[in-house]
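pasting for ref
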Amino acid sequence: MTTIRLSNKLINLVIAGFVFIGLTYFVSANSEQQTHLKTVTRDDIINVINNTPEGEVPFLKETDFRGQDMSNIDFKAANLFGSRMKAANLSGSNFENSNMNVTILSKANLEDANLSNAELYAVVILDANLKGANLSSSRLIANMEGSDLEGAILVNVRAGANMKNQPMGLMRVLLKNVNLKDADMTSADISVCDARFANFTEANLENANLSECDLRRANFTKANLTNANFTGARIDGAIFKDIMGEDSIIGLDQKDS
């Protein structure tokens, strides 16, 4: 009976992985050819924001501003659902409480941007610059492979799989080859993540949930792992050198160094 449960769990994980990967590729493949998207300029964006009635959020759903300079703009919790922002300069901009679900942010510059409490579900953020960005308390289910989050703030980020909604709830955050050096991930939930080869050097992962994550060959050198949960995580080849809080780590019975 136990073997059957484990097999079903594995099947659900595989299905969910294919679902998310399929969605990622579908969104990516169609990002360049969706003719219903409205191309907008910086002035257009600012005009919409400034003319939004008090008590409402700016409606910027399915807009296209790929490659444009949208730095240091306060988006005022805008609805950006399905928008294309590939290679855009969004540095220093404020997306707090914004709906950014199903957006394309690959190769975008989000350095020092505020994405706290933002909805980032089924988002593609490949090879993007998020140095110093604030993603605290955001809902994050995204493909972030190859992105740079050095010094980023991910306190209380909600990036874990929703085990109560299977198999779709098992869609997970993909952090393969992501740079999280010196990131603040206090109490972050990234359970069931794929963080192979990720760099967690000197990151603060106190009380973070990394259960069931694939952490093979990830680097945790000098990271704060106080009360971090590694239950069920795969750690083959991962580096745990000079870590903090080693005695309090949950579920980490064997470490490579």
